[in-house]
Amino acid sequence: MIQFEDYLTIGKAAEKLKERNVNVQMATLRNWFNELENLKVHSLPRTANNKRERVLSPLELDIAEFIYKYRQKFGQKISMSSIVPSLTDKFDNLYYDDTEDGSPGDVDLIELQNTVLMQIEEQVSILKRELHQEMMEELERRENAKQLALPDPSEVAREEERRTKEQEKAIHAAQLNLWTTENRVKLVLKSEAENLWNSNPVKTGFLIKKEDLAKKMEFIQKYIDDNKEARMLEIMNSMNENTD
After folding, report:
1. Which range scores top for mean pLDDT: 2-16, 99-113, 152-166, 222-236?
2. Among 88, 94, 102, 185, which one has the highest count of C-beta atoms within 10 angstroms of its own C-beta?
3. What is the pLDDT, as a whole number, of residue 110?
4. Mean pLDDT: which of 143-152, 156-165, 203-212 is highest?
5. What is the pLDDT of residues 22-54, one digit of tens each?
6. How far apart are CA 25 and CA 94, in angstroms?
């Protein structure tokens, strides 16, 4: 039985694979499992908490090692779809979960999130510098006015602590808003893709034509991937304009 401590994040899994002489970058490892999930071959386990983070078990480490050695043997340009038949023959316990909404995320979105977080951290740094400047100016004003009492250092410390907590809350709220916005964008794009598909669905079959559900899923996923980043940027720009 796999224990909780056997599960690894993608970053930790990349480090663990190096012990097997499997040198693969974290982004490449993420892309491999994204491709397997898009091909409906295998899904990464997810944590049971609200974050639903994707993690890797010993099974996924074995899968990654198999893909790495397969490409070492047959060439780095071989597609994942060409590897899948050998992969399914090797592992009889692959599992695909079609209940998760939307794609598991991609490098472009992660970079976008990192950019937003960097902007927030920069704003926090500016606020701290402004707070320090305000405190220094207040001390100088009191000194110049020859007031008898300077601010109580403990009061100053408490005020700085209060403002720091407010800034931390602002950062948390911004991160939560980004996550919520991303999910809403994916739902909107999914609805748009379904409407486009329904206007001209691809059908299969010789005698009885039926809607090609696999093509439909592929079309919807591609539409989301192609438009998600631009739609997120539009929303962010709109939010920035409203705050100016």
Report:
1. 222-236
2. 185
3. 47
4. 156-165
5. 999 999 999 999 999 999 999 888 876 666 678
6. 23
3-state secondary structure the chain: CCCHHHCECHHHHHHHHHCCCCCCCHHHHHHHHHHHHHCCCCCCCECCCCCCCECECHHHHHHHHHHHHHHHHHCCCCCHHHHHHHHHHHCCCCCCCCCCCCCCCCHHHHHHHHHHHHHHHHHHHHHHHHHHHHHHHHHHHHHHCCCCCCCCHHHHHHHHHHHHHHHHHHHHHHHHHHHHHHHHHHHHHHHHHHHHHHHCCCEECCCCCEECHHHHHHHHHHHHHHHHHHHHHHHHHHHHHHHC
Residue 186 CA: distances (Å) to CA of 74, 120, 156: 36, 24, 46
Q: Mean pLDDT across the stretch 219-244? A: 81
Token pair belonging to 190: 């999914």
